[in-house]
From TrEMBL:
This is Amidohydrolase family protein. PANTHER family: AMIDOHYDROLASE, AMIDOHYDROLASE-RELATED DOMAIN-CONTAINING PROTEIN. InterPro entries: Amidohydro-rel (IPR006680), Metal_Hydrolase (IPR032466), Metallo-dep_Lactonases (IPR052350). Coiled coil: none annotated. Residues 3-279 form the Amidohydrolase-related domain.
Amino acid sequence: MRVDAHHHVWDLSVRDQDWITGPGLRPLRRNFTVDDLRPEAAAVGIGRTVLVQTVTVAEETPEFLGLARHSDLIAGVVGWTDLTRPDVADELARLRELPGGRYLKGIRHQVQGEPEPEWLVRPDVRRGLAAVAAAGLVYDLVVLPHQLPGCVRAAMDHPELTFVLDHLGKPSVAAGSLDPWAGHVRALAALPNTVGKLSGLVTEADLAKWTVDDLRPYAETALAAFGPGRLMFGSDWPVCTLAASYAQVVAATEELTDVLDEGERADVFGGTALRVYRL
């Protein structure tokens, strides 16, 4: 079974996505549903997915758990809760007890929007991360390259918690620059409680004329650093549609992993996600 370890859905009639602003993101200003994704995933052999939070709104995670409960596609949810709240452990327990609560596999916060480069090592955030670990969940990192040293510190401070690096830390693919991003990724991957997500690269590249060769140095860096057993495929649908169709993203990832043997590629396209998220 192949797993897409990272996608989103939203319904603008339920809640605005306030990050979808400006002409460049206009194609995303419509509803994207599980029913929209299902035929796209089936066409390329994706049988299970992980649904990931999009906004820092408490109501979204229970809604996603409800979607997973009634879906034959969604196998796990990475939700959101305020890590800095004093009762975060109680809130995580409440989420696990909701209908569909067993599908909660991880927590994520939009760290990329925080002005503090080392937000993850604030004392109140560290307390929240400890609660995530105690709940048996993983923590997804959505960060920018300059925030990666803070991720390294957080992962060192919480060896009991698995950290998943979404979109490989959003390297500057369009600019073609590898450093200092590559060094930071290698430092993070040197810690055994970290995992990389081979996702989101097409939207960090030139949206109109990216090629697989543009993405290859970043994928090769991640493969060398994490290894296929700690790397997982994610489409980042529907955000990826700014640059590529779902099928094109899968095809590009297949090409980027063509140096792997069958078992290693099976890890990237499913095995790693199944283990890390306990799907």
